[in-house]
Write a structure and sequence with these properties.
It is a single chain. The protein is α/β, with parallel strands linked by helices and 252 residues long. It folds into two domains: 55 residues, no CATH class; 167 residues, Rossmann fold, CATH 3.40.50. Helices cover 36% and strands 9% of the residues. It contains eleven helices and five strands; from the N terminus they run ααααααβααβββαβαα. The chain has a three-stranded parallel sheet, with no helix packed on it. A two-stranded antiparallel ribbon has the order 4-5. Helix 6 crosses helix 8. It is globular.
């Protein structure tokens, strides 16, 4: 942090040194700190790195998963539908970035855009030739947009599913229109902001007719699975059967 003295920070961010000092004092002396951010940072420029910076700063205060801080709340006992245990060990080992960060997100199947771009452009550790994305905007929310643009151009085939066109979807071979949350039913089991919210099971009913030829992102995933020969793992395309499977342990 040495290069980022208060004057440099002011020049970069517009935050005055006095304001910065007051914030540092308040954060450093607080005995209980909790942290929550959503659309404010998530829909802003450089969202991923901003969110990461806030989360890292918060974690350094020692307030994670302790009284007065952000507590990890046990979720309801429902079956996990995306367990990595469903995949063979040799397949799991192919997660991009796992060799460099064996305890990081790739351990659970999550990869970074940086590792994805390396695989598409440089073919390391192997080449990625096709991509399907849902409601994301890599070029705006992730680092190195120039390299991201090259990666999207280098793909043999790219499908993007979204409500709106965005800078990333400009490079898609196929853009599939996704219905908004009010145009299809959905199930939400728990929400991690409180014990009461985590116990809540919500069926969100369809409120308005679907516009045009849109489909829900879940429908697209289930139909794609069927065509890839994995229908058995996706309840043969029956979304309601999947919800019943999730709710069975709760006897709902």
């Amino acid at each position: 942090v040495a290069p980022f003295d208060p004057d440099t920070v002011e020049r970069l961010t517009g935050v005055a040194p006095t304001t910065f000092a007051k914030f540092a004092q308040a954060l450093g002396s607080a005995k209980k700190i909790s942290y929550h951010t959503w659309t404010g940072t998530g829909q802003h420029r450089n969202a991923t790195q901003t969110e990461r910076a806030i989360a890292t700063l918060y974690a350094l205060t020692g307030s994670f998963d302790v009284r007065g801080g952000n507590v990890q709340i046990t979720p309801p006992p429902t079956p996990v539908l995306h367990s990595m245990a469903l995949m063979a060990e040799e397949q799991r080992a192919k997660a991009l970035g796992l060799a460099d960060r064996p305890l990081g997100p790739p351990l659970n199947g999550w990869i970074t855009s940086t590792d994805l771009y390396d695989a598409i452009i440089d073919r390391r550790p192997y080449g990625v030739k096709a991509l399907v994305t849902f409601g994301t905007n890599l070029l705006v929310s992730h680092p190195a947009p120039g390299r991201g643009k090259q990666a999207l151009q280098d793909l043999d085939f790219y499908v993007h599913c979204d409500l709106f066109h965005n800078p990333t979807s400009d490079y898609a071979d196929i853009l599939l229109p996704v219905s908004s949350p009010w145009e299809h039913e959905a199930l939400r089991i728990g929400f991690e902001i409180s014990f009461e919210a985590q116990e809540l099971v919500q069926l969100r009913q369809q409120m308005v007719p679907r516009q045009g030829d849109t489909r829900s992102d879940v429908w697209i995933v289930f139909e794609l699975a069927k065509r890839l020969g994995m229908g058995e793992l996706f309840f043969d395309g029956d979304i309601e059967a999947a919800w019943k499977y999730q709710l069975a342990p709760l006897k709902l």
